[in-house]
C-alpha cells in the first residue's frame, strides 16, 4: 500500500507523529542514501588541494572538473522523476547507489586527469537520480510524511557537513593511499547502503494513465510570473552554493594558520569546513520554523541580503575571524532552503508540483554548477580570496529580484498550502 502526500493523516486515520518499524527503516535508509548523495558531491572539493598537486592541474581546471559533476547532478534531476514514475522509485534509488559507488571506486584508480574527469561526470549523472526518486519513495511509503522528510533532510545536511572531514581524515590517516582510499571507502559505503535498500519492501505508485502529461498551464498556481522570477533567484543562490562548497575546504587550508589551526593542510581544511557546515544544519531547522511566521518573499530576501556582507568579509578574514564569519554565512544561507521549498509549493499547482520541484532543483544545481569553473578562473587570475566577494555580488542580484517579487506580488496569499504540500515541506 502507498500513501499520497496530498492525503492528510487525519483523513487516512493515521496519527501524523507516529511511524512503525518498517517506516522508520525506510526513513533511515533513504536518509542514508541522501547522505551518500552529498558525500559523493563533496568528496572532490574536500580533497581538491591534494588532487590538484597529484594530477598537476590548475585550480581552474579542477573547478571545471567539479562543474562536470555538478552539471550532470543538476540537469539529471528533471528526467529522473519522469523515469521513476514509470519503472519504480526503489529501482532508481538502487541504480543511483550502485552506479555512484562504482564510479567512486573507479575514480580511486584514476591515473590521469582525463580519467578523473570522466569519473566525476559519471558519478554526477548517477547521484542526479536520487532527489526526485528518493523523496517520492518516502512520501508514498510513510504515513507521517512531514516528520519523515524532516529526518530525510537532516540526512542530506549531515552529508554536506561531514564529507569534508571524513574524506580528508581518511587521506591523512593513511598517507600511503591518500585520496584514493577516501574515494574507495565512500564507494564501499555506498554499496553497503545499497544492500540495505535492496531489502526494502515497497508498494510502488501506479499511474492511472501512463500517457498523461503535465501541461504548462498545470505548473503554476495562478500567474507564471512569480515562479519564473523565483527560478531566476534560484540560479543566483545555486551559483553561490556551488562556488562556496567547491573552494571552502581549500580556502580554509590556506587562511587558517597557527595555534589550533596548525597541522596537515588538507585535513585542516576538511575539519573546519565540517564544523562550519554543521551550523548550516541548525540553520535548516530554524528556517523551517520561520516559514509559518513571516511573509515568505520578505523572509527569503532578508536571509539573502544578510549573507552578502558575510561573503565579502570572508575575502578579507583569516583564522578565528574567518571561521566565525563563515559559520554565520552557513547559518543564514541554509536557513533559506526550507523557505525556498515552501515558496515553490505556493507558486505551483498541485497537479504539477513534482515538475515544479524538478525544474527548481535542475535550475538551481544545473546552472549553479557553472560556479565551480567560473570561481576557479577568478581564483587563478585574482586569488582565491576574491571568489567569495564575487559570489556575494550574485547573491545581491538575486536579492534585488526577490525584493521586486515581494513588492509586486499580491499581499493576499495564493491560498493555503494543501495538506500534501505541508507534508512535503
Automatic annotation (TrEMBL):
Protein keywords: Cell membrane, Membrane, Transmembrane, Transmembrane helix
InterPro entries tied to this protein: MFS, MFS_dom, MFS_Efflux_Transporters, MFS_trans_sf
Gene3D superfamilies linked to this entry: MFS general substrate transporter like domains
Major facilitator superfamily (MFS) profile domain span: 26-410
Protein topology in the membrane: Multi-pass membrane protein
Lineage: superkingdom: Bacteria
Primary location: membrane
GO molecular function: transmembrane transporter activity
Record-annotated membrane-spanning stretches: 63-84, 91-108, 114-132, 153-175, 181-203, 224-244, 264-287, 299-316, 322-345, 357-375, 387-406
Cellular localization per UniProt: Cell membrane
CC terms in the record's Gene Ontology section: plasma membrane
Pfam families: MFS_1 (PF07690)
PROSITE patterns: MFS
PANTHER family cross-referenced by the UniProt entry: CHLORAMPHENICOL EFFLUX PUMP RV0191, PURINE EFFLUX PUMP PBUE
Protein's name according to its UniProt entry: MFS transporter
Taxonomic lineage of the native organism: Bacteria, Pseudomonadati, Candidatus Hydrogenedentota, Candidatus Abyssobacteria
